[in-house]
Design brief:
By secondary structure, the protein is mainly β. The chain has one helix and eight strands; from the N terminus they run αββββββββ.
């Protein structure tokens, strides 16, 4: 009799709490497979019109965030938070670092030895190396 009550009690709890098997909702990865190779740290060098020669580090995160950090010859540095996503064959980068409009659209290509080539709408290319 006690066993019957225990089984009945467990079955009632399952009925109340939904212990029946349900398909779980699929969690979508925010990074499409084709963008996974962009994740991580990339670095390049150049000349900023206001700051002079700089080294730039771009930290690209899986959650769609990024951080652009400028390292100046004087030893100072400036960081700019931003975000990114893929749209068709373009990499869309957003944040204060990317000018007055706050957005830059580039085509990208990965080469051997950790080289990332970015090309803007005007055909200018920039080489980034895996950091």
């Amino acid at each position: 009799m006690a066993l019957t009550r225990a089984v009945f009690g467990v079955s009632m709890l399952c009925a109340l709490w939904g212990c029946t098997e349900r398909p779980s909702a699929a969690v979508e990865d925010p990074v499409p497979q084709m963008g996974a190779e962009l994740l991580g740290t990339w670095e390049t060098e150049g000349v900023d019109p206001a700051l002079g020669p700089v080294r730039v580090r771009m930290q690209v995160e899986r959650d769609g965030s990024l951080t652009m950090t400028l390292f100046m010859e004087t030893g100072g540095q400036r960081s700019f938070p931003g975000s990114w996503f893929l749209e068709g064959d373009e990499w869309v980068l957003r944040g204060a670092y990317f000018g007055e409009g706050g957005q830059q659209r580039v085509r990208w290509k990965l080469e051997e030895k950790g080289r990332l080539i970015l090309e803007d709408e005007e055909g200018r290319q920039q080489v980034w190396m895996r950091g």
